[in-house]
């Protein structure tokens, strides 16, 4: 079921438009994980990719950032375009140069380096002068004041939230126009999760960075996103404007856990009956 008339239409003339077209992904030549996923991210928007653990969110992001090859994964059908050009055959570095960066699940920082050294590694594609690097760092510290405070600390000894900020800050050092952000809320104290989403929103509004945001935390993701896709077992089962999704009865019941009966399991039989209704 689609709650949205045609999200593609408004974005067609948009240069940073990301379009994933009916992709199928297979791991190890035999494990079919994505079964024809299509999604769009218009420039300047935050799009949420939602779904339970194992639904295929990370695989989708890795397919876009061409990191699948490292995990013996292949796109066996479909294609991906960014700014109107096919990108599924580029290397991750080429993609970063074109403005598309990924922050992987699990807030990857170099634990033995300081926060600032971690950030500096993010600028490797840019060939910046000393002054340019300083300016790029200042911009990151402007959005993440906590990182400025912790700049000399060894990243491995900072909190989970600070490491997540460090990973996002590192991606920002490449001056991306779009960031693929994988589960920023995972394992982080609720207050810091809110802080991180606020920063994501201000980067979106003030720097015009578009985001494709994978999240199991449907509630917070829909509060900050413009549009959402719900993934189940390698397929998009629902998509729509974030506001429509968060007020949709099925989404409330199965993904937001706000129905009278409390949170239900995604594997609940009733859910599957309803899902058939969405897919009909
Ligand atoms: N490298 C891999 N090799 C084989 N199967 C994988 C690999 N990575 C993920 N999978 C499988 O693909 C499915 C989707 O995983 P993933 O994309 O990580 O989902 P999510 O990010 O939504 O939790 C899961 O069933 C997972 O076990
Ligand atoms: Mg994941």
Can you give a write-up of this model?
With 280 residues, this protein is an alpha/beta fold. It is built from twelve helices and ten strands. It has helices at 7-11, 57-64, 92-97, 115-121, 130-143, 145-149, 160-172, 190-207, 218-224, 242-247, 249-256, 269-279, and strands spanning 18-27, 31-41, 46-50, 73-82, 85-86, 100-103, 178-182, 210-215, 227-232, 235-241. The strands form two sheets. The protein has a six-stranded mixed sheet, sandwiched between helices. A four-stranded antiparallel sheet has the order 2-1-4-5. Helix 4 runs parallel beside helix 7. 41% of the residues are buried. The structure holds adenosine-5'-diphosphate (ADP) and magnesium ion. Residues 57-58, 105, 182-183 line the site of magnesium ion.
Quick recap:
The chain has 280 residues and is an alpha/beta fold. The protein contains twelve helices and ten strands.
Any descriptors?
280 residues, binds adenosine-5'-diphosphate, Rossmann fold, alpha/beta, globular, 2 domains, ABC transporter ATP-binding protein, four-stranded antiparallel beta sheet, ATP binding, single chain, binds magnesium ion
Describe the secondary structure blueprint for this structure.
Layout: H1 7-11, E1 18-27, E2 31-41, E3 46-50, H2 57-64, E4 73-82, E5 85-86, H3 92-97, E6 100-103, H4 115-121, H5 130-143, H6 145-149, H7 160-172, E7 178-182, H8 190-207, E8 210-215, H9 218-224, E9 227-232, E10 235-241, H10 242-247, H11 249-256, H12 269-279
Parallel strand pairs: 3-8, 3-9, 6-7, 7-8
Antiparallel strand pairs: 1-2, 1-4, 4-5, 9-10
Helix pairs in contact: 4-7
Bound molecules: adenosine-5'-diphosphate and magnesium ion.
Keywords: Amino-acid transport, ATP-binding, Cell membrane, Membrane, Nucleotide-binding, Transport
Protein name: ABC transporter ATP-binding protein
Family: Belongs to the ABC transporter superfamily.
């Amino acid at each position: 079921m689609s709650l949205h008339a045609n999200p593609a239409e408004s974005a067609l003339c948009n240069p940073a438009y990301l379009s994933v077209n009916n992709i199928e992904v297979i791991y190890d030549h035999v494990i079919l994980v994505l079964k024809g996923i299509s999604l769009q991210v218009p420039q300047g928007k935050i799009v949420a990719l939602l779904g339970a653990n194992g639904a295929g969110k990370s695989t989708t992001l890795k397919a876009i950032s061409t990191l699948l090859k490292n995990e013996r994964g292949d796109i066996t059908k479909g294609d991906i375009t960014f700014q109107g050009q096919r990108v599924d055959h580029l290397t991750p570095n080429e993609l970063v140069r074109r403005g598309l960066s990924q922050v992987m699940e699990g807030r990857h920082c170099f634990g033995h380096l300081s926060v600032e050294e971690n950030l500096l590694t993010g600028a490797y594609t840019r060939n910046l002068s000393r002054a340019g690097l300083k300016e790029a760092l200042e911009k990151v510290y402007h959005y993440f004041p906590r990182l400025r405070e912790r700049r000399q600390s060894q990243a491995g000894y900072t909190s989970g939230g600070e490491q997540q900020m460090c990973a996002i800050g590192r991606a920002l050092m490449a001056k991306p126009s779009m960031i693929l952000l994988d589960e920023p809320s995972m394992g982080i104290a609720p207050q810091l999760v809110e802080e991180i989403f606020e920063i994501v929103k201000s980067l979106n509004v003030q720097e015009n960075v578009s985001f494709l945001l994978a999240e199991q935390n449907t509630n917070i993701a829909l509060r900050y996103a413009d549009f959402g896709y719900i993934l189940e077992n390698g397929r998009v089962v629902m998509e729509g404007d974030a506001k429509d999704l968060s007020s949709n009865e099925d989404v409330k019941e199965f993904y937001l856990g706000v129905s009278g009966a409390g949170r239900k399991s995604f594997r609940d039989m009733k859910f599957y009956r309803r899902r058939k209704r969405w897919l009909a």
